[in-house]
Amino acid sequence: MADLDPNCQAFSAYISETGLVDYLKWVLIRLYEEPEKPLSHGEFMKFAYTTQSSEEGDYLRAEIDRLTARNQELELAAADLEKELAAIKAEEQGSEEDY
Question: pTM value?
Fold first, then answer.
């Protein structure tokens, strides 16, 4: 077997690093499991895009909800800490005036 062209090797490394190989495997598995196969390359591209985007969209919506809730928790905690800090500063100013 002849050595691969360096450009071909670089391209193979690139598609592996970017995750394209894994994505294509994922799409092909979904296509295999699909009872109604796309008849043209355009339908296949639509299938690949909509399959990925609907599942990824659900994940991203759940992640947004989780991060939004966490952000609200952190904002409440920050507000409580600001109140505590203001109370501590007020106590320190009151004790300095006693001297």
Answer: 0.42
